[in-house]
Amino acid sequence: MRASKYLIATVKETPSDAEIVSHQLMLRAGLIRKLASGLYTWLPLGLRVLQKVSQIVREEMNKSDGMEVSMPVVQPSELWEESGRWQQMGPELVRFKDRHDRDFCLGPTHEEVITDLVRNEYSSYRQLPANIYQIQTKFRDERRPRFGVMRSREFIMKDAYSFHASQECLDETYAVMHQTYCNIFDRLGLHYRPVIADSGSIGGSTSHEFHVLADSGEDEIVFSSESDYAANIELAVGTPAPAGDEDDGEPKSRELVDTGQASTIEEVAAKLKVSPQRIVKTLFVHATNDEGERTDNLVALLLRGDQELNETKISKISGLASPLEFADDDLIQKKVECSVGSLGPVGLSDLGIRCIADNSTSEMHNFVCGANKPGYHFINANWDDDCSPEAIMDIRKVREGDISPDGKGFLSIKRGIEVGHIFQLGTKYSEALNAKVLDKNGKSVVMPMGCYGIGVTRVVAACIEQNHDAHGIIWPKAIAPFQLVIILIDAHKSEQIVEFGNSLYEQAKEIGAEVLLDDRDKKTSPGVKFADSELMGIPHRLVVSPRSLADGVIEYKNRATTDKQLIETDAIASFLPKLFS
Ligand code: ATP
Ligand code: MG
Fold first, then answer.
1. What totals of helices (H) and strands (E) does the chain contain, helices first?
2. Are 49 and 462 in contact (CB under 8 A)?
3. Measured between alpha carbons, how far apart are the two ends of the chain, in Å?
């Protein structure tokens, strides 16, 4: 490719609306351009990278017996009615009508379409497992599109769906896909970790996310210091820890104390000269009725004073409004006759209020809690008949330093970018869409399913988050848009530069290198050519200048190591292949 005829759309200034480095560099290096919020055009340079990522994903999927298909972006509402998601999905699902007034949506994911295909095309266990994938555009009307293609509304996903005649068969394919994902992210040169994950609204049980570790990541990932335990914080298990307090454990009798204006945990702790760990915090949320509708009945959630609620864990408890809704002051006043600041668990069962306690409170004794009397707290409260939770479970967010749930080591927390997500869906969709095959005994069985996504466009951004310096992107070899850039200096002054440059360009192409010849005319200064090559992150660079040619050498520079060498012009033919071996 000749730069003079190529769209080199580099920008010197950092765009003001780009908050994270990958977004800034993707705009500055001329990989993408914004069309509207969450919508991006991929420019020639960016598309080369994107296609390489797609190709690696495709090759590894094919190696694992994946079958590539292409399903429509536009999907009829009937299938979504069948799965129940036409009603369940919020405004993220873009719905519209065609000219015949029929309902359609833009596919945010393809479980319905693939299940429809498979129920029509498959009939016997002998044809299974089937693992079908596509690399295709998805549309999700994200509430907050941001960070460029990292969280966009239109994006490319590799989505695969597997179908089985038994759970064992699903387990096997799931393990194969886990390994396939590791192979893909290894080949992409990413520093990543698979972690145990929540399966979210898509449903299902077993699930792993693949996270690229980066400070700009939107997710928090929890790791054990001494074992393989790694989980998304949404799922990371909080183990009951000893209360570790200053008390000897002998139950004392509960006393009412005046705490005046103190209402936050910190204020109460200061007033009573105890640590927040010795206080039980009480939060009220809305309950649902038997039909699952939100009511004004309350449920109390109890936590140790220094802990925070984990809303993902809470969302799995039945009987609570979803999404979680905290009761407002008026409602609490009406039900408990006390305002926020002095609330506590004692006596709530008499008021018909369910109490659910975090397991961090189970070992607490002689603790402090609100007395449900404005301006008062109890000291030396204990779990007893009039203060006893209906359930003790893990409802908190784990913290740095907590004991790992497998008992080995302590937890630390890092930030991650979710680039892949695999899960066992079970029969959620196949049941709803009646996707069955005959098993070995001739019996009709609903097929358990797996589903496996990779955010192909997001991978490009995530890769830049991990591979850049002050001058620009540093592409890993596997996905660099070009492997080599040849920069010509003062070509307008010297025919020899043009000739030498052209012959170098031809030689590089001959050995199969993807090469960009920077033959832009004198309006583009050498300094700009150098800066652009670094910004665009091309791994290898050769510079042909009148001065060096006069000395019989050309300069080589490696983008990643910044290593520079002078290569004798007559040694270039043997030097070039070494760069790409
Ligand atoms: P997130 O938690 O980041 O919103 P998700 O759980 O909704 O993602 P999945 O439904 O699991 O995502 O989709 C599979 C993959 O698609 C994700 O792992 C991610 O890499 C990518 N992806 C999801 N939403 C977006 C988006 N808005 N922009 C770019 N990539 C996305
Ligand atoms: Mg996900």
1. 15, 30
2. no
3. 21
Neighbours of 49 (CB within 10 A): 24
Nearest CA to ligand 1 atom 19: 455
Q: Which range, of 72-81, 360-369, 458-467, averages the lowest pLDDT?
A: 360-369
Confidence of residue 201 (pLDDT cuts 50, 70, 90): low
419 lines ligand 1 (CB under 6 A): yes
Where do we find the tokens 């939770």? 389
The most distant pair of C-alpha atoms in the chain lies apart, rounded to whole Å, by 98
Which of ligand 1's atoms lies nearest the C-alpha of 145?
Answer: 27
Residue among 282, 450, 476, 514 at smallest CA distance from 381: 282
62-74 per-residue burial string, b: 16 or more CB within 10 A, e: under 16: eebebeeeebebe
CA distance 204 to 196: 13
DSSP letter string, 340-400: TTS--STTTGGGT-EEEEEGGGTT--SEEEE-SSTTEEEEEE-SBTTB--SEEE--B---T
Question: What tokens does 44 get?
Answer: 């020639």
Res. 203: pLDDT tops 80: no
Q: Which ligand is nearest to the CA of 418?
A: 1
Binned at pLDDT 50, 70 and 90, residue 378 comes out as very high
Q: Are 529 and 510 in contact (CB under 8 A)?
A: no
Q: pTM value? A: 0.90
Query: Which residue type, as a one-letter code, is found at position 281?
Result: K
Give the position of tokens 């006759």. 337
Q: What is the mean pLDDT of residues 310-336?
A: 90
Count other Cβ atoms within 10 Å, centred on residue 388: 15
Whether the predicted pLDDT of 69 surpasses 70: yes
Please compute the mean of the pLDDT values over residues 525-542 and round it to a whole number: 97
Q: Which of 110, 458, 459, 465 maximizes ligand 1 atoms within 8 Å of its Cβ, making it the mutation to test the pocket?
A: 458
Please list the residues that pair with 438 across neighbouring strands. 124, 444
